[in-house]
Amino acid sequence: KSYKVIEMTSNCLDIESLIKKSHEAKAMAYCPYSNFPVGAALITKDGTLYTGCNVENAAYPVSLCAERTAIVKAVSEGHREFQAIAVATNMQDNFASPCGACRQCLIEFGSDWDVYMSKPDLSYKKMTAGELLPLGFTPDKLINFQ
Amino acid sequence: KSYKVIEMTSNCLDIESLIKKSHEAKAMAYCPYSNFPVGAALITKDGTLYTGCNVENAAYPVSLCAERTAIVKAVSEGHREFQAIAVATNMQDNFASPCGACRQCLIEFGSDWDVYMSKPDLSYKKMTAGELLPLGFTPDKLINFQ
Amino acid sequence: KSYKVIEMTSNCLDIESLIKKSHEAKAMAYCPYSNFPVGAALITKDGTLYTGCNVENAAYPVSLCAERTAIVKAVSEGHREFQAIAVATNMQDNFASPCGACRQCLIEFGSDWDVYMSKPDLSYKKMTAGELLPLGFTPDKLINFQ
Amino acid sequence: KSYKVIEMTSNCLDIESLIKKSHEAKAMAYCPYSNFPVGAALITKDGTLYTGCNVENAAYPVSLCAERTAIVKAVSEGHREFQAIAVATNMQDNFASPCGACRQCLIEFGSDWDVYMSKPDLSYKKMTAGELLPLGFTPDKLINFQ
Ligand SMILES: [Zn+2]
Ligand SMILES: [Zn+2]
Ligand SMILES: [Zn+2]
Ligand SMILES: [Zn+2]
């Protein structure tokens, strides 16, 4: 019942391990409606790993994605600063990119951290959270206005 | 109780009118929790206008944004092809950009149509739905896979 | 492009017409992922009718239900007081009951109004919005606390 | 970084400890928009504890509740059968009841398990997940139909 911590420093992030963890996390996916398992692996600033999977619902809008599962797990354990998240699906021909709602969740915790969108062969594309939501609706906008 | 149709052809879209409609739509916003009214105005391919506003909820995740309100209105009246959507807030210093979840809703209906992010002075930035979600998780990916 | 208004007064609500409208609204459903069309028909306090359908998304959590589509349409046109909503699916053996998220959306606008859960043969069960969410998390709780 | 397991069997669930855990979990809440921390504590069938808190977003609909945070944590660690969940807020005068969307998430994993809605003084009301969503839209309905 304990999370495994990948040995790493922030200057030496083992990307391949992170991506592998995201693919392993697909095994937990609860996706009876889409049959489309998604996994995610999130590394906090202090090097703690949290994995996530999609958790669907008969009422589709109540479903949750793998990336947000990983984020809320980490936040609920006291983390709000992140290094990187890896995303995995079974699509051979497309890198696993987060949906817009997940991108919105990512930038809530900063724009300048890394998103690894992978394929089952562990190849990947890397972009920052901010690059994935150009002109993003960031928390400062709402807070500055109120 | 009827929607007003702006006179236009797809080659002659009156952008200023569209943006004005999005600002007028803020008046309907139900936002007792954020006090942050948002308006949207959507033009379908055949030139029909639908406006939307944010509709919040005491349970924040059950809230809905202005852009998605406009989209579901249009879809529920039989439209699935869109020319453009304008988005409006009261922020003087930031263009009103859609949240990630709304961007995801926009690309469900195509990547190559226009999003006008405006300020109260009616100045705006224009990007396509697809540009707002680079490497977006588009419907073809899910459908091709299944 | 205009909504049709059913002739009625609040003392003489034609329930069968409302339920029929909810079944007709299924025709607009955008549900390529579930193939489960849902329709809704909402009557405001002043007798205006709004219909809704489910509008799904490749990213399932970004989908929206028929009931909420109808509600946000009405709110975005200036209505916040409702008499009744009818819900329709193609299930022969079950009354079409709203998901929990929709029930939460309904009680945002009052607990004491009617929800008609129907079958394709137009038979129905009626409950109030409040009865569908016993001990519901209503707006007054959040507002009183803040 | 490991979850603590409360010593218990399913016949001897220590409710007071569970409710205390739900109140402690409020400390992790990320709620800069509502300033309304919510905590949850979930016990799986095999006696493992997962806590959750609300995780809000500048785009309100992208927020997530404490109860669903706890559920997706458990599912992503391989659990799909639950004994009970406790919910906690700082409201002195109201028992902390789940929103409709969370109730929908609860019944995805069964209707016959316990929800403890508490106050800061640890007093509570107990209802089952199914009782909280009468005539609920349960997974069997969608699956049987498709
Ligand atoms: Zn997502
Ligand atoms: Zn939005
Ligand atoms: Zn619903
Ligand atoms: Zn909730």
The oligomerization state is homotetramer
Number of helices of chain A: 5
Low-confidence stretches of chain A: 3-12
Please report which band the strand proportion of chain A falls in: under 5%, 5-15%, 15-25%, 25-35%, 35-45% or over 45%. 15-25%
What is bound: which ligands?
A: zinc ion
Query: What value does the Rg of chain A take, in angstroms?
Result: 15 Å
For the termini of chain A, the CA-CA separation is 42 Å
SSE pattern of chain A: HEEHEHEEHH
Q: Any idea what the shape of chain A is?
A: globular
Structural class of chain A: alpha+beta
Helical content of chain A (DSSP H or I, runs of 4+): 25-40%
> Major beta sheet of chain A, specifics?
5 strands, mixed
**How many strands of chain A?**
5
Q: What's the rounded overall pLDDT mean of chain A?
A: 92
Strand neighbour order, sheet with most strands of chain A: 2-1-3-4-5
Largest interface: B-C, 42 and 41 residues
